[in-house]
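@channel anyone free to eyeball this complex?
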Amino acid sequence: MAGRVKGNVAFLAAPPNMAHGRRPAFPVSHPARYAVVIAGGSGTRFWPRSRTRAPKQLLALLGARTMLQETVARVSPPIARDHVLVVTGRAQARAVRRQLPWLRERLLVEPEARNTAAAIALAALWVAEHAPGATMAVLPADHAIGDRRRFRRDLAAALALAERTGALVTIGIRPTHAETGYGYIRVGAALPGTRGRAARVAAFIEKPERARAEALLARGNVLWNSGIFAWRAETILDVLRRHLPDVVGPLARARARGLAAVYRRLPSISIDHGALERAERVVVVRASFPWSDVGSWAAVAALRAGANGRNAVRGRVVPIDSRGCLVDSPERLVALVGVENLVVVDTPDAVLVCRRDRAQDVRLVVEQLRRRGMGRYL
Amino acid sequence: MAGRVKGNVAFLAAPPNMAHGRRPAFPVSHPARYAVVIAGGSGTRFWPRSRTRAPKQLLALLGARTMLQETVARVSPPIARDHVLVVTGRAQARAVRRQLPWLRERLLVEPEARNTAAAIALAALWVAEHAPGATMAVLPADHAIGDRRRFRRDLAAALALAERTGALVTIGIRPTHAETGYGYIRVGAALPGTRGRAARVAAFIEKPERARAEALLARGNVLWNSGIFAWRAETILDVLRRHLPDVVGPLARARARGLAAVYRRLPSISIDHGALERAERVVVVRASFPWSDVGSWAAVAALRAGANGRNAVRGRVVPIDSRGCLVDSPERLVALVGVENLVVVDTPDAVLVCRRDRAQDVRLVVEQLRRRGMGRYL
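replying in thread with the prediction:
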């Protein structure tokens, strides 16, 4: 594939017959590029819409397709659909197959949740076995990304960077406010020949308290850690072997029947802590696309709401003097009288009425339900 | 029945074998006393709980029994159960019979709603025909009354006053705030021998705007018009014949089959406008009992809420940092996060989320539903 070469970095130019956003019938992709979609989360912040069997990534919170389906659609191009893997948990496997019926053997099911280091190791072993030397993009299944064209361009650039340099590549998001819910990346020296679009990672910074978040923003030269990565499968496996022992070895040796026993003993740790913060060559590509991790109903409200306090509605609503509300009620009519900035989510057995700026505390409802032995609502 | 006689007014003393609040097996009542419960309203302020077939008075908003059942239970004593009549509309007749199965022929069904003058005229004709010379108490089916003992005492006093003086007797409530939703009574000269408990009505005052309500309260000597009355059946019929023609005559002449035709042509007017404001001898008894007309969900919230902002709940609720809310959701779990002073009412096809102090505007939801052709929600 033709590309401009500048310095030691190659950027993949879009093939001439690929129009903006359209997927060709037989997608042309680098033969050794894979996408690994991490779809095992079981968060609690989207209750009551999300349940154990149907966590956030399996829901259609923002449109007609589920977040998982959107994530998979988004990566082709630059990655062919038959090079997409999904990693998920046992409770969600059936639903994932229903949503992506063509997946076949490219669905990796974890017997237990052990955070992203184990999930990525499992996927990297699969890629290394099936396509030695291949690169893999790693993507969370539950983010919202605007501007697909720019996303695909940046993803292709990240993959090309990984191929050329062998580094671990992360995609960083320009921060728009002092967010305390994301990890940050301190940006180091720019990589030559990338026109400032890529740089070394100087440090990873934990989710900061508010004061620190504001200081980081003020000082500048930080990016949000998007959780989207690109690397050669063998590279991440090497890094994990060196810095997080007892993960790759046991997984590599396990047969299908032995996976449960291995998982029981695996550490539960993110790829960020387990590998990225310990590795030597980590670089960041600055994202050019709009991004949200859709962390709560408030984020859904912001993404779906119109201007001027218009309510965001899925279902039937009668609003009387009410604004800025998110109503998610496909089956029942919802009437609002004199209220502002509420999230109202209706399901067959439970209704949520939540102040929009308290959406993070929906997890406290889930905690209460567990504590009170009301697991049937989970 | 023994009673103290002072001046020209007799007060009925409680029979010695009637303990506080208990109804004797064979209730002793004045042979010529009836209670007429007006149960025909079809208000819109209790949507979505109230529907056309199940308006407010047929709902159990405050306890296990419906408001109609409470009203009927409340009047015995001093009135025997087989002296209780109920007036209602066609759409509610079946539900009324289900709630009061012993009613038999004492259920009067109006073909159309024509406000209280017509309903009372219909009932008065029935009473005059079945028990000449009898007095009748008139009571709305949808009020909340605390302290049954005091209520029964005041009701008996009002009936006795009507029997002794032939006046139209109304019960007036001591105002506790500048309410704009009730009519007021300006209190005139005290009736001798009643120790200030009864007085002439100087004037009836329309539901005032806020400024006037405050002025009335400040000036004092006003009472709220409770809509509870007592009079001889023949007396109210005389007053209506004189001051509101074309009501009593046509009703008296109508046979069962002719009632619909008569009702079509009746004026729709309250008994207050049609008779009380025009009659010569109208007196008021000061109520000694707590009273609410339960005009909206806000009133239900106030009556059911505990102290210190505790939520009033019917059903299952998970409140996170939420207070002062009314939740009426017998079938579905409701989770509240960070909200205050809301009314949340859940029904199988519709959910209401209403700011507590905007409860009067629930009628605007009903208007919208009608306007948008969504009558199935009514």
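from a first look: Chain B touches chain A at residues 47-48, 318, 320-321, 329, 332-339, 342, 344, 346, 348-355, 357-359, 361-362, 364-365, 368-369, 372, 374, 377 (CB under 8 Å).
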